[in-house]
Amino acid sequence: MISHTKKSVRLLLVFSLYFFLPFSCIEKLDFLDETQEVQLVIYGLLTDIPERQVVSVSRTSAIGLAPMGVSDAKVSLLTASGGRFRYFLSGFGEYTLEGFAAVDGESYAIEVVLENKVYMSTFEKVPELLADDEISFEFNKEPFRTESPESVFTVFSETTLPNSTDPIYLRWMVEETYFWPLVYLPGTGFPPPPPPPCFISDVFEPNRINLFDGSGTSTRKGNFVLGKRLVDNSFLYPFFASVKQLSINREAYEYWEKIKIVIDNQGSLFDIPPASVFGNISNVEDRNETVLGYFEVAKTKVTRIYTTRADVPFNLVDPCLYIPNKPENSYASECTSCEGRAQGRRWTNDAPDWWKFD
Amino acid sequence: MKIKRQDFFRSIEESPFLRNVGLKPHLLFLMLMPLFSIYFQSSYAQTEFTEVSFEQKNLPKRSKYFLTGKVIQSESSEALEGVSIHIDGIFTGNNTDAAGQYALTLDSGKYRIVFRQFGKKPAPYIVFLYGDGQLDISLTDRDFELETFTVQAEERDRNIRSAITGVTKMNISEIKLVPAFMGEADVFNVLQSMPGVTSVGEGSAGMNIRGGQADQNLIMMNEAIVLSNSHALGFLSSFNGDALQNFTLYKGTVPSYFGGRSASALNIEMRKGNRENWKGSASLGTAVSKFLIEGPIVPEKTSLIFASRLSNANWILNKANEVDVKNSKINFHDFYLGINHQFSENNSLDFNLLNTGDYFRFSNQFGFEWDNLVGSLTSRNLLTDNFSLVGMAAYGSFNNGFFEPSSIDPSKIENGLYYYQGKITGLLTLEKVDINFGAEAIQYQMRPESLSPFSAESGIAAQTIQKEKGLEYAPFVSADWNPSEKFSLSGGIRYSNYVQQGPDSVFRYQDGNPMSRLTITGVDFIESGQVSKYSGFEPRLSFRLTFDNSSSIKGGYSVMNQYLQTISNATGPTPIDLWQLSTTYILPQRSQNASLGYFRNFKEDEWSTSLEGFYRSTDNQLEYRDFANLFVNPHIETELIQGEGKAYGAEVLIQKNSGGITGWLAYTYTRSLIRTTSEFAEIQVNQGNWFATNFDKPHNISLVTNFHIRKGRTFNTNFNFSSGRPVTGLTSNYVIGGIYVPNFGNRNKFRIPNYFRIDISYLTNGFVRKWDDKINFSVYNLTGRRNAYSVFFQREGRTPRLVPYQISILGTAFPSFTYTVSFGK
User: Fold this and answer.
1) Which residues 127-146 on chain A approach chain B with CB closer than 8 angstroms?
2) B295 vs B280: CA distance, rounded Å
């Protein structure tokens, strides 16, 4: 019996070592070798305001790599009444139609011809309803990108829906434009003219999709958070938030709902499982070819609000203060060039038409 | 007459060679397993026979004599039905009847007669029959104290004899020999090592039988439906092995007295309490502690059995290095109470109650909790010698919850259902035909589903929706016809009906568009009465053609309807899939199943082999639509799509039933595919093409080996390999309107890595000589392989792209130790 017991205990000790092996429960997985597909991506937005209408054409690349713009496509806007308007290449995979405005109730489609293949969207009708947005903002300390409180600028909208029984589907995009003066270096001798200021624009929280389905509610008024960003030295000077309300149709709304689910996936087991989001564009001759993206038309309203340094309750440091005798090359590039400050964002030296504030 | 026993191990231990080289016998044993196997094959079948002689004395001698008698259970004196009688190594086809009696007519002479029943020690006799005789036998339960383990012959040749194809039957003695998670003898664990049975992944609830979805299996305890039947994310079943008698899985043709699911039926018989003495056992384990007590409340009349099981595994999680695991929690329990009252020899009443509960939280990421109650009352009445009636009434209740205790808006969703089940079955036994007939009805009531904030700070708005109720009922009849030893036919029909009852809100949708939240045009509220109704005939047929005593061909065909299904769109398989009744828009499943198999045993049933093929097609199989939002959704049909499913494959089983080494090798090739069949292309999944289901794992291999070392000691291994299950994966990223969008491929286009696991267990007697104590030491996932449980996608750092990750619930070896002391006689 004693011998038997000893053997059992010994066995137990040996195997108990496994108990102390480290647990490791989450590991990166790689499907890269199996995912070498390339798909065409076409995205276009046509609004009813006379602005630069854009269609982008690109191809997907392997996971993690930015999609590649396609520059040899022929892009046209088609109207249901037979009209055709040509978009022109304006950048890497970006095609523009300047000064065109969609008409309420009219239907439009896009046609993309690429490598002798014709890709076409369905005809989409411009909605006729719009809501009223009353924009406001707040500066707060709250967790944003980390779990500890940060200085955050938030844009809100109090939206009033039109008194109509027709359904209304809304999407909002928020864009910022702020003023950034370059440092003035008088130098020696005759003082040069001060450098023109920069107007730098960017999309607010690009991965935030603001949607509201007004079809199933009797409530005519709603309050929405439309965007947040960290407060930084961009707020040293006048800072505009432009809220673009897009009234879209049901199909476009459903498309954006799906995109929202895909990009909001936080990895929880209860997240809705991801899937490919298919849009309204297809290869005319081969419907089975996967074409990503969407062509949407929208009745549009832009509302703006601005803030100045006086509104900011936090301490802001100007990195570009002029210091006499400080060598020019010791200023950061953001102080001496708009491009250096913009770092890939859109910028211009000319104030936009709407750049008006008290 | 005694035959000398072989004691191989003693001779090994005493070997001078071993003593000289210092090699421990157990290690040597492991190294020389294959040789042992050969050795045991040759040394098997050494058994003690009792000699009995019958003489005619003063009466005239005859050429034939009668041998009659009764077989009873030694401990309870209960008559044993179905004990097989083997004469000179061949099954005679004779079994004891319901009263335990048998009658043989034999030529005068000497016979080797063995009375056998699975789970009992065989009773071998040498009978000198030179006159009519009465031989009464008592059989005792097998407790593995023999040096060689033998699966009793009645069971060994059941694969040849049984008329129904695709039946897997086992008792607790066999189940205990398969190493399992936490050292627990477990039905599901054993089944998953058998051919045709798989699970979606480690720690996933339910089983997939012959390519079927987990909800397509009818799981019963003493024929009462059990909807929630697993613990610990599916690592264990809810059925305590100590209280379990046996189980029968019908994975081919399901008899017509079972219905309501479209793939298989699993009936788990729980034990009755001992009617003579009080006894019990207590177990303390590293992960699970158990207690069992049984005995007579009224001797010979009323018995009771109570078994409980509680987890105590949290201290193991606390030892982990990984913070998420350390912050996790796992608790579960199950209680089983069985009371049996014997009014008379022919009339008895059974009360069974099973309560199970689970709580699992993975760090602050997610958690499940559920509890389940099933109670049944069964009356068994033998009305005449050849007609018996069984009536059963049951109640089941299932509450389910899952929660996300995350820092932002923690929330909890709760749902569940309860049901009443009634069934009456008559069994008429004629000379060559057994006829079963009766009816079954189940009233389901789904509980309201609610979403609520999980903490006071949560911004989640509370929400509750009402769910459906429905009545399923079916008359059935079946007959087993055995015209000859060589041929038997089993056929039956079930006519199932389902009525969805009010109240319910039936939404109306735009014509020409797929049903969607945005195409609702109105709603009809039906306060009471019939909302929708479905019905269908379900023919069942199987045959057996025996060529000789050791080989047969069996085939079967069945149609089955299913009115209660589960739906899930969780990224990984979860134990909290939503039960959904058929409604106006959600049509019942209807499956057609066909199977054909060849069975052959060797060496007097020492080896059993089988090769079976199967095919199933299913109409109206449920699938979730892309981007479905299933929970707290009053119009669930807008998130679902139905389609046709097909599953097919082949199974091979090679089983060694006796000797020093027993076990089996099982290989299954199975495919499980589905395609959605909507008229609207925009909601079709994978463009309406066939695609693999979540549980499509083509190759499955398991090797279970039991080494019966010495008295009361066994060393067991379980090797398990399967193909990785399909998942939906990222194929690329693209940008629209400045938004970085991950692009996922077709559903279930990719596969996670293959699954591989080795478990071992060592069962032995305990430390204290005077106690009846036992030790179970086991290691689950011996190699510590990190098998994937689920795949999810998350941003890598601050980059906008999503990256796939796999969760391994058990990324290491999991040892457990259980010490059990039995008391009482």
Assistant:
1) 145
2) 8
